[in-house]
Amino acid sequence: MVIHGMQKMTLVDFPGLVAAILFSGGCNFRCPFCQNAALVLHPDTEPRIPDEEIFGYLAKRRKMIEGVVLTGGEPTLQKDLLQYAERIRSLGFRTKLDTNGYRPDVLKEAVREGLFDYVAMDIKNSVPRYGATVGIEGFDPAPVLESIAFLLEGHVDFEFRTTVMAELHDDDSFRDIARLVEGAPRYFLQAYSDSGDIIDPVFSTPAQEDMERYLSILAPHVGQASIRDR
Fold this sequence. Notes:
Strands 1-2-3-4-5-6-7-8 form an eight-stranded mixed sheet. It has helices at about 35-40, 50-60, 80-90, 105-110, 130-135, 140-150, 170-180, 210-220; strands at about 5-10, 20-25, 65-70, 95-100, 120, 155-165, 185-190, 225. Helix content is about 30%, strand content about 20%. The chain has about 230 residues and is α/β, with parallel strands linked by helices. The radius of gyration is 17 Å and the shape is globular. The protein is built from eight helices and eight strands; from the N terminus they run ββααβαβαβααβαβαβ. It has one domain: TIM Barrel (Alpha-Beta Barrel). Helix 7 runs parallel beside helix 8.
């Protein structure tokens, strides 16, 4: 895999574990609110972290770090994702995949081969608004729906999550989403905030009362629903 960034330790990105995060470049979406614009739009201009540095760090921190998160960009675009995850697991780490769900074939293979302990999949919006939210005209949501259905079958521990914009989401969004994810073990909402590396910084943070109302719409349909700070 081509890794462009590494967060050496996190207590919040891999539930219950102390973890490191590895950031791959490139994405098949163009979400205008994306917080990693450089990684998505111009990954080749970003520095690459050599494998020797990454695995050297992990090997030295085995007693401190329990898991590794593969995120992006979109990791399922990397042709050697499965081999990379297997290499990480061979060091004794648990693994988590962050994905937009648009490559269900890769997701299914990775899960069925037991290469990830946990998956976090972004649900961008309700189906009618998916294209506008991911920045792709004429977007076909079928692969996303296939990934949702696969995860709901319970092959791996997982969560769904949505980054909420005042301009892109409303009550109808979450009523539709709730029907899509019925029975999911957990769902997290996170309010959009401008990190300074946004593809199109024209959006705004939703009001707290809106976030709480969206949460109340989702909660009856999933095992756990909460608002997560970014």
